[in-house]
Write a structure and sequence with these properties.
about 220 residues; alpha/beta; seven-stranded mixed β-sheet; globular
């Protein structure tokens, strides 16, 4: 079990799958830079993250910008939307005096990615909901703004195992138990907001801020 202070941001999973060094720069070394892609994503989510908008129709109600946390996995964040569908086999929601199945919904500004970061992110959100509501969640949904398509993601056993492994790796990096990746230039680097901080095309020895401080202290500097 993790403490609240040890929990990592769910949104960081996107950075981790895109580039482990990018994730380390942002979440371990606390560095950040904007570019057109990050701004476009912020604008898109501003339209989605409006907790004042409540939707309810027939047997469904939708909660937006729902804060979640999992002390088992060590993650916290905000889910874009959670659909509560009335179902006698679901968990009991006292405010509604009925049982509901829960389905997390994540909105993405672009299109489906080649890696599994989106599936892992919605999976972590589902496991947070399971822990908080003491229920089982079998699927979630990803909505892509570019394709205007909603994709169903099964919260399978394989996905759960991948999430557990990702949690271990990310916490090891955060705690300094593993070294972050050295910068290696790829074509996607040009689209990264951290490009001018990472400088992946410079061929020299890189040290993280934490490593530099540790070495300086040990050398009496």
């Amino acid at each position: 079990m993790f403490t609240e202070e040890e929990c990592l941001m769910i949104s960081g999973i996107q950075h981790y799958y895109f580039c482990k060094r990018q994730w380390s720069l942002i979440h371990v070394e606390q560095q950040w830079a904007e570019n057109v892609h990050t701004v476009r994503g912020d604008i898109f989510h501003d339209k989605v993250h409006n907790p004042t908008i409540l939707e309810s129709r027939k047997n469904i109600f939708i909660s937006r910008s729902l804060p979640v946390i999992s002390y088992k996995l060590g993650f916290y964040g905000i889910i874009d939307a959670v659909e509560f569908v009335k179902d006698p086999k679901g968990c009991y929601i006292s405010a509604k005096k009925s049982n509901f199945r829960l389905y997390p919904v994540e909105y993405k500004v672009g299109k489906p990615k080649l890696n599994r970061c989106d599936a892992v992110q919605i999976g972590v959100q589902a496991l947070c909901l399971e822990e908080m509501f003491q229920t089982e969640i079998k699927q979630g949904y990803l909505y892509y703004g570019k394709t205007r398509h909603r994709e169903q993601i099964e919260i399978s056993e394989d996905l759960r195992k991948e999430i557990q492994q990702v949690s271990i790796e990310m916490h090891q990096l955060m705690n300094g138990e593993r070294d972050s990746d050295k910068p290696v230039f790829h074509s996607v680097c040009r689209n990264c907001s951290m490009y001018n901080i990472c400088l992946p095309q410079l061929h020299k020895t890189y040290l993280s801020v934490n490593k530099y401080i540790q070495i300086s202290i040990s050398n009496g500097g």
